[in-house]
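Lab manual, section 2.4: Encoding a predicted structure.

Procedure: take the sequence of the chain (307 residues), apply the prediction step described in section 2.3, and record the output as structure tokens. A sample record is shown.
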Amino acid sequence: MKVGVIGAGMVGGAAANALVLAGVASEIVLVDRDRKRAIAEAEDILHATPFAHSARVQAGDYADLAGATVVIVAAGVSQRPGETRLELLARNTDVFAAIIPPVLAAAPDAVLLIATNPVDVMTMVAARLSRLPAARVVGSGTILDTARFRALLGQHLGVSPQSVHAHVLGEHGDSEVLCWSSADVGSIAVSEYGRQVGRPLDDAARQRIDEAVRRAAYRIIEGKGATWFGIAGGLVRICRAIRGDERAVLTVSMLGDEVEGVGPVALSLPRVVGGSGIVGTLWPSLTPAESAALAQSARVIVAAAAG
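Recorded output:
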């Protein structure tokens, strides 16, 4: 599978490297307005292929994206310490207006995979600029937040995060919704599992995990300036689902008519991801409090998109 990566910064570079290490892409093209940076990233990643999987890795221009199955859009200005993802909107909308048309001119059949923050609003911007079917404009959404939730639950409960089934819905940001009501381990509710293994999920533990998931990006940005490894893993997981037409259920974002009576809006729900992008959406059973929180998250995104 050929994958284009627009933006050779930390997220784009980490995603390209992870695509090679995971063996998901056979060809990767890095495009960046700083061509020297794109060339350096491509060369550095190429040198890892003997230790991982064979792949052609090159820096290029938009025309070199021809034939790409997926184009990852990771270009944009970075989130500043203390800045929310939604505050990035005005600074990144102009970037997308310059990027989307030449991407589609070169690769009109590609799935656009949006990673630029604020990712839900930027997914809406990309869908409207591209005029593609909404299902072909996939935002990375809360795939990383869901991974954080599963990892922290697994750590608390003493079980592999791969055995934890839990989802974060809504905005990839401060209003995201951790769905505690449906979280389980081996079909056992996490609260009951914790009781059985002597690791209870009391109010204090839940608050600690919620805070750790919700504020993770801010802590990482404060410590090293940006996040890139976690989201790179999430982008590779989405690309793998597209490459294999897996019909995998992933919490990703797309523009839809409405959620909880609010819309049109792009936010994350459990989506079925296959070869053509998002091929289905699942509507989880939520508690009244979770439904209200999801509606509020949708309102936050719609308000941000409206400027």
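Check your result against the sample. The mean pLDDT is 95.
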